[in-house]
Amino acid sequence: MDVSKIIFEIMYVVSGIILISTGIYNLVDKNNPKRFGSALFWIITGIIFIAGPYMNKTVVGGLLVVLGILTVTKNIKIGNLINSSEEYRKEKSEKIGNKIFIPALSIGVVAFSVAQFTKLGGLVGLGFGALVSLILTLITTKENPKYISYDSSRILQQMGPNVILPQLLGALGVLFSTAGVGEVIAQMMKGVIPADSRFFGVVGYCVAMALFTMIMGNAFAAFAVITTGIGIPFVVHLGANPAIVGALGITAGYCGTLMTPMAANFNIIPASILEMKNKNGVILTQAPIAIILLAIHILLMYTLAF
Q1: pLDDT of 68
Q2: Contact assessment for residue 31 and residue 79, using Cβ atoms and an 8 Å cutoff
Q3: What contacts 73, CB < 8 A, 6 or more positions away?
Q4: Which end of the chain has fewer CB atoms at under 10 Å, N or C?
Q5: CA dist., res. 68 & res. 216, Å (int)
Q6: Are 293 and 255 in contact (CB under 8 A)?
Q7: In the chain, which stretches have pLDDT less than 70?
Q8: What is the pLDDT of residue 145?
């Protein structure tokens, strides 16, 4: 039996339990005018995380429609979240100092180590990293473990429905690829990109990766479609190194990630958690750097891939 698959299932079950507990916190919060809609959203999401692979696909699709309706009708609202006092947080901040970054950094270190030195893969490593980070957080802050569930719920509610957007966009990318959108794009680009021009092929590929990522909100979802439609016929077939094209193509897509609200987990959720007045403030700050990086990607691909 595949060990990584078992670990994946455990990770999804744990995530589902946290989501369901968030729904229960909303349900018992009588100060939340949207408590029933909020509770239903988080509980349904938790059920899908836990039992989705074993449920009828039509039922799962129906539940996703319900989640969409709850979101569109604005029936999801942050509950009455009680945080620690400002004085307590300030006291802890002065006491802990920069040690608070140790748990955060441990996620990347553990994820990289598991991916590099085991056969479990990076995603499993990310799960182990999160667990190690949680343990280090308790050690560093010396807080009571009983607050884990409540604070997990509080953070989830601050992020809101955007938290499931990466999964939905990833599924959309697979759907587009299966439906042959890449071939359709290739046919469209034949009249735009000169078939024998390496430079315009590279420009078209990198720009399309960034733009489609902005639409999809996910560079992985855009990669299969745009590489099939533009990268292979207009770049690789002209003699470019596929490894270099693929590596720079996916990171060119990330330039688009920096400039789109569809990448909610990168751009909208941080603005929400930080309570920024301008919800697009993160995007506006990142956009100039993203455009410069995209130009650098075009230059690197053109000079290194051929």
Answers
A1: 87
A2: yes
A3: 37
A4: N
A5: 17
A6: yes
A7: 1, 170, 182
A8: 84
What is the distance in angstroms between the CA of the first residue and the CA of the last residue of the chain? 43
User: What is the distance between the alpha carbons of residues 17 and 6, in angstroms, rounded to a whole number?
Assistant: 17
248-to-83, 173, 257 alpha-carbon distances in Å: 43, 19, 14
Contact status, residue 161 vs residue 76, Cβ threshold 8 Å: yes
Can you give the pLDDT at residue 303? 93
Q: Residue written as tokens 């989501």?
A: 19
pLDDT of residue 251: 92
Contact 255, 270 (CB under 8 A): no
Using CB atoms within 10 Å of the CB of residue 201, give its burial: 0 to 12 exposed, 13 to 18 middle, 19+ buried.
Answer: buried
Question: Which of 12, 73, 11, 80 has the alpha carbon at shortest distance from 40?
Answer: 73
The tokens describing 11, both together, are 């990770």
Residue 247's Cα: distance from chain center in Å?
A: 19
pTM: 0.72
| pLDDT at 1 (0 to 100) | 55
Distance CA 261, CA 282 (A): 9
